[in-house]
Amino acid sequence: MSLDRRSFLSVLGGATLTWPRTVEALAQQLAPGGAPTDEPFWGLVRAQFLIPPDRIYLNNGTLGPSPHIVVDAVTEHTRRVAMTYPPGVAWDDLKQSLSSLLGGDADGFVFPRNTTEAMNFVAHGIELAPGDEVLTTDHEHIGGLEPWRLVTTRQGLPLRVVALPVPALSPDELLEAVWSGVTDRTRVMCVSHLTFTTGTILPIRELADRCAERGIVLAVDGAHPPGMMRLDLGELGGDFYASSPHKWLLAPQGTGLLYISEGWRERLWPTLASGGWDDLSLGAQRFNHMGTMDESRLAGLLAACEFFLAIGMDRVEGRVRYLQGLLQDGLASISGVTLATPSDNNMRAAMISFQIEGVESSALQGHLSRTARIRTRVIGEYDYGWMRLSTHIYNGPDEIERVLELLSGVARSGIPARG
Ligand SMILES: Cc1ncc(COP(=O)(O)O)c(C=O)c1O
Fold it and tell me: Which CATH superfamily hosts domain 314-411?
């Protein structure tokens, strides 16, 4: 039995609530306003979160904190299972909501646990032949990269890695940097839509066009953009889009996404076989037959989609770009700071990476955490050593100001000795 959308988003009866009980109520509360600098509006949004007021969370790039409405949907689902009620997951509502939010058609959505699993489905499901090459960049996360390293190692095939410019100056520069690695043997290109290292947006549309012309399979690691910026998976192009809604879409942990383009729904080999894996009439939905799974996370994902639809991706993107811009401008004005994130608005959205001269980012991370309970991420991968800050809809300009104040102090006088 399927629950309807309202049932998912209602919370337990009887509890005293200070946040809207349903997405409809939330949408009503958030109807007016929402410009990037509309602090009363964004204050209402912040009130939907459980983040304690004395914490500044700037690590959404690793994991997004779910709002009440998502936590409640998960709890409600779990409770119904424990009560032996049919919990059901409104799969059609979920796929439809995702399609409304991210574009693409509802039938193309598959629900692995994360980007890592999604990309494994792709890498293990494509047949590579002797002589084929896989192309990637030196800014890929292990979750997107290692599945390709495994299959190429196993089959003795080359995995070519191109270097991306840092900071990138234009989308064209990035396009040509990636394309410089293409040879007559390139069979697959696997690149991030937005790099976890520097928050740089790659020109996926243009790459998709070129790949389509050359018959190259484009697998996009889209761990970050959904929930951060407007997206149309139908328009973007490319063959596969792997993502982690537990990041910017603020869904429960272990909630992944794989969007399979129409041409691959009957062609990709399943990695996990259960009933129906070879029923091609099921298209991409063959990949959703994974045995018993934690469907509470899907109830949470549906609530997260409805939450973002209620706010509206225009407003979300406007706000995150505004906050990121405050950080970027503030950092650029601090002497001793080197930015790894591009300054061009078309190549950045809500993450910024930088280094302070003479300061180890991990020491800076400890300092920010001890001094003001600020959560950050250090990009230790590839020895880059950048400090990365993510800004989402629950952050405010006061938090950015506080961070900039601390960073200015460190750039001026170093990290104070611990007493
Ligand atoms: C670009 C990118 N790809 C893949 C991943 C892996 O995500 P997950 O652990 O959800 O599979 C991450 C995680 O930070 C990431 O930033």
Answer: Aspartate Aminotransferase, domain 1 (3.90.1150.10)
